[in-house]
Specification:
It is built from eleven helices and 14 strands. Helix 1 crosses helix 6, helix 2 packs parallel to helix 3 and helix 8 packs across helix 9. The longest helix is centred in the first third of the chain and has 24 residues. It starts with a strand and ends with a helix. The relative contact order is 0.14.
């Protein structure tokens, strides 16, 4: 049985569906009174979790966290940080306190941990950033330490820009691009490390099953592109022009620090650990990933 937090989110819901289709029993953590046999209540802000949460569980996948797509006011920053640290701390302690313990904890993280770079490829050994998002990611990953110290295998999924029709960055871009208003962000030279939702789900299952994988794992496609390349490819797939440019200053004015840490950040992240472990991407190229997601 696999316990999943964040099971109502974009990645979590897709993971739960995929596991069930493979006849894997899934237990979902919910922040309310459980009303279904596959649900378990927890309240990370109060450090409370149903003591039966780990019963029969062999693997835990923690995907809980406040959505980053909002202006990062001081209160939003606190929610973004707390939602990740509190949930991970609570789950790590619950894993350690259970008997028998789950054999693996797969914990979400993000490629934002690297901060912004120029053109150098960033594998799992690359230097980490020091901006807001990078700092949150470092604390997020560190919160899993009690589980690792207790001998539980911990894998950290440093996920890139997830491409999915029903949510994430692609869903937000579809309307302006279909209206012919799509274009580059800033100068368009920043690297975008994308990954198809299908491959995110497959990579998470791979990390659950592969006993040799622990520590940070870059969950990104093998062929990152610049923002200009991404814009041209999405426009071609949709059959729409992409002449517009959104100036960097306008993004910073509208989104504040979030623009610098996300839309304008350059992160050429590569999936070295996954590739070396033998993982094969269903969608290694951007155009094939976009066509698949948009036709599903």
């Amino acid at each position: 049985m696999i316990l999943v937090s964040g099971a109502s989110g974009l990645i979590g819901s897709a993971l739960a569906r995929a596991l069930r289709s493979q006849n894997v029993e899934v237990k979902r953590l919910v922040r309310r009174r459980a009303s279904h046999p596959d649900e378990v209540s927890w309240y990370p802000d109060r450090a409370e979790i149903d003591p039966r949460a780990m019963d029969g569980v062999t693997a835990v996948v923690n995907l809980a966290g406040e959505n980053l797509s909002q202006r990062w006011t001081s209160s939003a920053r606190q929610r973004i940080r707390d939602s990740r640290i509190q949930s991970t701390t609570l789950l790590a302690r619950a894993v350690v306190g259970s008997d028998p313990r789950p054999r693996v904890l797969v914990n979400a993280s993000a490629m934002g941990i690297y901060g912004t770079h120029r053109d150098d490829p960033l594998d799992e050994t690359a230097a980490l950033g020091d901006d807001f998002l990078a700092t949150v990611c470092k604390e997020w990953e560190a919160a899993t330490k009690p589980a690792a110290d207790a001998g539980v295998r911990v894998a950290l999924s440093r996920t890139g820009l997830v491409l999915a029709r029903e949510g994430g960055v692609l869903a937000k871009l579809l309307l302006p691009f279909r209206l012919g208003l799509g274009g580059t962000l800033g100068r368009g030279r920043q690297w975008m490390s994308w990954v198809a939702l299908t491959d995110v789900v497959r990579a998470l299952r791979f990390m659950i099953d592969n006993e040799s994988i622990s520590g940070p794992v870059n969950v990104v496609g093998p062929n990152p592109v610049t923002n200009a390349e991404f814009t041209d490819t999405l426009g071609r797939v949709l059959g729409r022009p992409t002449f517009t440019t959104v100036p960097a200053f306008a993004l910073k004015l509208a989104l504040g620090q979030m623009a610098e840490d996300t839309a304008l950040a350059s992160q050429r992240v590569v999936p070295r650990r996954l590739t070396e472990a033998g993982f094969e991407f269903a969608f290694p190229n951007l155009e094939s990933a976009l066509r698949s997601e948009l036709s599903s």
